[in-house]
C-alpha cells in the first residue's frame, strides 16, 4: 500500500512537470519535499498504529498474568540480581568419559 501511495504521488507530481509553463528548480525541490513529507506522515501514522496495537497486547497480557496470580514487579531498585540467598543457577556439567559414538 505505501508503494501505491508513493506511485500515485509521484505520477501527480510528474504530470505537473509536463504542464506548460516554466518550472524552476525551486518548484521541483518544493514538490519533492512535499512528497517526502507525505511519505514521512504515512510512516508516522503506521508507527502510531503499531504502537497502539503493542500497548493493547501488553495490557491484555498483563491482565492475563494478574488473573493467573502471577505478580509483576518492575521496581527501579531491581538490578537483576536475586534478593534471596540461593546461589545462581548453573547448568549441569557434562560427564567426562570415553565417547559412546561408533564409527
Automatic annotation (TrEMBL):
Residues 1-11 have a biased composition (Basic and acidic residues). Residues 1-30, 70-103 are annotated as: Disordered. This is Uncharacterized protein. Residues 12-30 have a biased composition (Low complexity). The lineage of its organism: Eukaryota, Viridiplantae, Streptophyta, Embryophyta, Tracheophyta.
Amino acid at each position: 500500500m505505501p508503494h501505491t501511495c508513493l506511485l500515485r504521488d509521484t505520477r501527480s507530481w510528474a504530470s505537473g512537470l509536463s504542464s506548460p509553463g516554466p518550472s524552476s528548480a525551486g518548484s521541483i525541490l518544493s514538490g519533492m519535499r512535499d512528497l517526502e513529507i507525505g511519505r514521512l506522515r504515512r510512516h508516522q501514522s503506521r508507527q502510531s498504529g503499531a504502537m497502539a496495537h503493542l500497548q493493547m497486547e501488553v495490557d491484555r497480557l498483563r491482565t492475563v498474568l494478574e488473573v493467573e496470580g502471577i505478580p509483576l514487579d518492575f521496581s527501579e531498585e531491581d538490578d537483576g540480581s536475586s534478593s534471596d540467598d540461593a546461589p545462581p543457577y548453573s547448568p549441569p556439567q557434562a560427564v567426562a568419559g570415553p565417547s559412546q559414538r561408533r564409527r
